Amino acid sequence: MSEELDPSELGTQEYWDTAYRLEVKNFRHHGDVGEIWFGEDIAERITDWVNKNIPKTNQILDVGCGNGMLLVQLSRMGFTNLNGVDYSNDAVVLAKDVSKHYGTDITFAMANILNTVGTEDFEVILDKGTYDAISMSTNAKEDREAYISNVHKALKTNGLLIITSCNWTKDELISHFHTRFNVFDVILTPQFKFGGNIGSVFSSVIFQKK
Ligand SMILES: C[S@@+](CC[C@H](N)C(=O)[O-])C[C@H]1O[C@@H](n2cnc3c(N)ncnc32)[C@H](O)[C@@H]1O
Question: Where would I find the Methyltransferase domain in this sequence (predicted)?
Answer without folding.
Answer: 58-182
